[in-house]
Amino acid sequence: MLNLNKMAEQILKINKGIYTHHDKVKYAYKTKPGLTKEIVMEISRQKNEPEWMLKKRLEAFEIFKKLPMPKWGPDLKDLDLSKIIYYQKADAKKASSWDDLPKEIKNTFEKLGIPEAERNVLAGTGAQYESEIVYHSLKKQWEDKGVIFLDCDVALKKHEALFKKYFMTSCISPSLHKFSALHAAVWSGGTFIYVPKNVKLTMPLQAYFRMNAKAAGQFEHTLIIIDKGAEVHYIEGCSAPQYNANSLHAGCVEIHVMENAKARYSSIENWSKNTYNLNTKRAIVEKNGTIEWVNGNMGSRNTMLYPTSILKGENAKSDFIGIAFAGKGQNQDTGTKVYHLAKNTTSTVKSKSISKDGGITSYRGLLHIKKGAVDSKSHVRCDALMMDSISESNTFPYMDVQEKESDLGHEASVGKINAEQIFYLMSRGLSQEDATRMIVSGFIEPVVKKLPLEYAVELNRLIEIEMESSLS
C-alpha cells in the first residue's frame, strides 16, 4: 500500500522549510515576468499549437485585460501579476520511466512518494514540473480497453477534434472570471482523460503538480470525459517550496460525466504559504450520472476554490466533501456550487474547516434549483472549529430556489476548543497535546471516514503535523 504517511510528512517538510531550497534544475526556456500579447503568442509557438488554439489564447488574453479582480473574498492586493513568470520549461524531455528523468527532478518526486504510488495502487501517473509534464504513464491493461490518459499538450495533437470540442467550451468559459481568462491565455500541461463506454477503472489515475521556482505561475489544465456507463477515480496532489516572493496557481478542471457514468475527483492541495491558489473546477453531469468531489486544502496564503456541479440530466447526482485548514497568515475561502437543472437531481455538501493562530476559513456556497427541476433534493452541512480566540470562521451560503416542489436543507455550526474539554481529557491521563489532537480528530472523523483510505490517512497526518507545529 502507498505510504501516504511518509508522503504527507515530506510535503509538510517542504512547506515548513526543511526543503526550502529549490532543486538546482536547468531551464530550457522561461518567459520574462509579466504578461503581454507577445508572451501569449510565444507560449503557443513553443508548443507548436494549431492556429485555433492560438486564437483562443489571444481572445482570452483580451478578456483577461478587461475583467476586474475579484472584489470579494480574500484580499488579493499583494498579488502582483506583473511579477509572475507565466511559462518556464525545465531542461528535461518527457519520460515514461522514472529512471529517464534528470536526477534533480526525479529526487523531488521521490521525496513525495510518487514512484511508489505508481508501483502499488495506480492505473496511471502523470507528473508536472513548472509549466510542463515531465512524466506520464498508463498501465497496458487500461490502454487495451481504450482508456486515454495523456498530458493535455500531447492530447491536443493526438486527439485534436475531441480536445477542441470540450476544451473551455460548455463547461468553463474564459469569460467566467478574470482568472479563468488568464488560464485560457497561458495554460500549459495538465491531464487529459477519456474513458470509453462501460469501462470502469478499478484503480485510480493520479497526477502531481510541482511549482519549484521563485515567483512562479502554474496553469495546468485537466480535461476529463467519462463516456456512458464508465467510471473513473482521478487524484491530484500539489505542492511548492516557500520563498519570499508570491506565486500563483490558477489551474482549471473540466469534467464531463455522460449518461450513467461516474467520476470521483480527489485533490489534496498543500501549496506553500506564499502561493495564491485561485483554481477553477466544474463538472457537467448528464442523466443518471454522478460526480464526487473530495477536496483537502491545507496550504497557500489565499485560496479561492469552489468546485461546481451542473446537474444537467434527470437523476444526476453530486456529492461534495471538503476539508480546509488555515493557520497564521492563511485565508481559505472554499466551498461549492451546485446547479439543479433537471428533475430528480440530488446533491449533498459536507464541509469542515479548522482555523488556528489567526487563520481565516470561509465556506462560500451556491445552490440553484431551476424552475421545472421538480423533486430535486439538496442538503448542505458546514461545521467549523476554531482553535483559539484570534482565528476566524465564516459561512456565506446562497440559495436560489425557483421550484417549489424541491427539498433542501442547510445546517451550520461553529465551535471552539474550550478549557473544560481539555481539562476533562487531561484528567483521564492525556497530555494537553494528545487531548487537543483527540478533539480535532473527532471533529473531522465524520468526513474523513468517507474518504478513500489512503487519503484519509494522509489528511489525518497532515492535520496532525500542523497541530504539532501549533502546539510546539
Structure explained in plain terms:
- The structure is a single chain.
- The strands form three sheets. Strands 5, 6, 8, 9, 11, 12, 14, 15, 17, 18, 20, 21, 23 and 25 form a 14-stranded mixed beta sheet that branches.
- By secondary structure, this protein is α/β, with parallel strands linked by helices.
- It has helices at residues 4-16, 37-47, 51-66, 103-111, 114-120, 140-143, 152-158, 160-166, 178-186, 419-427, 432-448, 453-471; strands at residues 27-30, 88-90, 124-129, 132-138, 148-151, 190-195, 205-210, 217-218, 221-226, 231-239, 247-249, 252-257, 262-270, 275-277, 280-285, 290-297, 302-305, 308-311, 317-326, 331-334, 337-340, 346-355, 360-369, 376-386, 392-401, 406-416.
- Helices cover 27% and strands 35% of the residues.
- It has two domains: 4-305, no CATH class; 419-472, no CATH class.
- The model is unreliable at 1-22 (pLDDT under 50).
- The chain has twelve helices and 26 strands.
- The radius of gyration is 22 Å and the shape is globular.
Structural class: alpha/beta
Compute the number of helices. 12
Proportion in helices: 25-40%
Count of distinct structural domains? 2
Question: How much strand content do the residues show?
Answer: 35-45%
Q: Measured on Cα atoms, how large is the radius of gyration?
A: 22 Å
Largest sheet: 14 strands, mixed
**Uncertain runs with pLDDT below 50, 5 residues or more?**
1-22
Q: For the terminal residues, how far apart are their CA atoms?
A: 31 Å
The residue-averaged pLDDT reads 81
* Outline: globular
Give the tally of β-strands: 26
